[in-house]
């Protein structure tokens, strides 16, 4: 199933179809070209914040070379306006522009005409503004808080304390704590109203422990599937039929930077395994200490196999 986004242009007042499609594959929403940095060219600030560091440096270098090339052409058009520079030499004008833009201070070459002084003044202003913008963008990229949170590849449905329960687990990959961590789970699926209208409905899943004062290691999240649960009576086939999607959202305060961090994950119908259980990753050392084995973080086993072996 595919959806196509339509956008109304403010200038032409016509419907434009951008090159963005939302495909439902295994119940998961996938946006074509999502994460491709050059698709944000209409929003340069967002582009410079989301592009990779290599792309950010490349864009800065290209802009720097382009600005100097433009001013070099302006100096060449001014004739013999730079002292100790070869008249009409693009490279002499280019390196003179580099000195002016970066406020390095002139050596052998310097402006010697009124025309050159005007161009130097304009370029000096652009150089000061450029340095301020690049400094602000670099700081914004460095200071943007990020969370390194790992979610299990699958969610399981098994019995817990005598009740059918949906479970998934998450772990903090940094050696610090996420304070006042909160986690929320949502079920999104296709439904048709009594009037015959189609829409995507969002259900809040009630969790047994939706928050923790300190999230440092792992967190096994549980949702009881009872009569009040939107998953009650559902199966893998019904989840696929309704294009169901389980979305997880986690937020908290990173104790290192004292800022709010976010993480999210989604499970499609095939990612929810029934009658399965997570492998225990908490073990004990011979001297009585506990440790966590993250190598089996995503591993599950069949509950029926466990009952047969016992």
What order do the helices and strands come in, and which of them pair?
Layout: E1 2-4, E2 7-8, E3 15-16, E4 21-25, E5 28-31, H1 44-50, H2 53-77, E6 82-83, H3 90-101, E7 110-111, H4 114-143, E8 149-151, E9 155-160, E10 163-172, E11 178-192, E12 198-205, E13 211-215, E14 218-224, H5 236-241, E15 245-254, E16 259-267, E17 272-274, E18 276-278, E19 282-284, E20 290-292, E21 300-302, H6 303-309
Parallel strand pairs: 9-17
Antiparallel strand pairs: 1-4, 2-3, 4-5, 6-7, 8-10, 9-10, 10-14, 11-12, 11-13, 11-15, 15-16, 18-21, 19-20
Helix pairs in contact: 2-3, 2-4
Overall description:
This is K+ channel, inward rectifier, conserved region 2 domain protein. Residues 149-305 form the Inward rectifier potassium channel C-terminal domain. Keywords: Ion channel, Ion transport, Membrane, Potassium, Potassium transport, Transmembrane, Transmembrane helix, Transport, Voltage-gated channel. It comes from Richelia sinica FACHB-800. One of its GO terms (biological process) is regulation of monoatomic ion transmembrane transport. This protein has 310 residues and is α+β, with helices and mostly antiparallel strands. It has three domains: 2-34, no CATH class; 53-143, Helix Hairpins, CATH 1.10.287; 149-309, Immunoglobulin-like. Helix content is 28%, strand content 35%. It has helices at residues 44-50, 53-77, 90-101, 114-143, 236-241, 303-309, and strands spanning 2-4, 7-8, 15-16, 21-25, 28-31, 82-83, 110-111, 149-151, 155-160, 163-172, 178-192, 198-205, 211-215, 218-224, 245-254, 259-267, 272-274, 276-278, 282-284, 290-292, 300-302. Strands 8, 9, 10, 14 and 17 form a five-stranded mixed beta sheet that branches. Strands 11, 12, 13, 15 and 16 form a five-stranded antiparallel beta sheet that branches. A hairpin with a 5-residue loop joins strand 19 and strand 20. The longest helix is centred in the middle third of the chain and has 30 residues, at 114-143.
């Amino acid at each position: 199933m595919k959806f196509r986004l339509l956008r109304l242009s403010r200038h032409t007042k016509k419907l434009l179809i951008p090159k963005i499609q939302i495909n439902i594959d295994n119940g998961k929403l996938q946006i074509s070209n999502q994460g491709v940095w050059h698709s944000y060219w209409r929003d340069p600030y967002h582009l410079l914040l989301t592009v990779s560091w290599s792309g950010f440096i490349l864009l800065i270098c290209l802009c720097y070379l382009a600005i100097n090339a433009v001013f070099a052409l302006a100096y060449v058009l001014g004739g013999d306006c730079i002292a100790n520079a070869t008249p009409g030499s693009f490279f002499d004008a280019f390196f003179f522009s580099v000195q002016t833009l970066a406020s390095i201070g002139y050596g052998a070459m310097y402006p010697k005409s009124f025309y050159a002084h005007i161009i130097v003044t304009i370029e000096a202003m652009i150089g000061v503004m450029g340095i301020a913008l690049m400094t602000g963008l670099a700081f914004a990229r460095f200071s943007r808080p990020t969370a390194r949170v790992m979610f299990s590849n699958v969610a399981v449905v098994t019995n817990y304390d005598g009740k059918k329960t949906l479970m998934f687990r998450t772990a903090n990959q940094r050696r610090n704590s996420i304070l006042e961590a909160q986690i929320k789970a949502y079920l999104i699926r296709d439904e048709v109203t009594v009037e015959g209208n189609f829409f995507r409905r969002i259900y809040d899943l009630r969790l047994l422990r939706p928050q923790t004062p300190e999230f440092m290691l792992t967190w096994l999240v549980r949702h009881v599937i009872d009569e009040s649960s939107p998953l009650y009576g559902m199966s893998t086939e019904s989840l696929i039929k309704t294009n169901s999607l389980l979305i997880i959202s986690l937020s908290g305060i990173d104790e290192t930077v004292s800022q709010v961090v976010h993480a999210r994950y989604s499970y499609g119908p095939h990612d929810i395994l029934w009658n399965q259980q997570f492998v225990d990753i908490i073990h004990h050392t011979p001297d009585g200490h506990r440790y966590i084995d993250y190598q089996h973080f995503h591993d599950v086993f069949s509950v029926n196999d466990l009952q047969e072996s016992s």
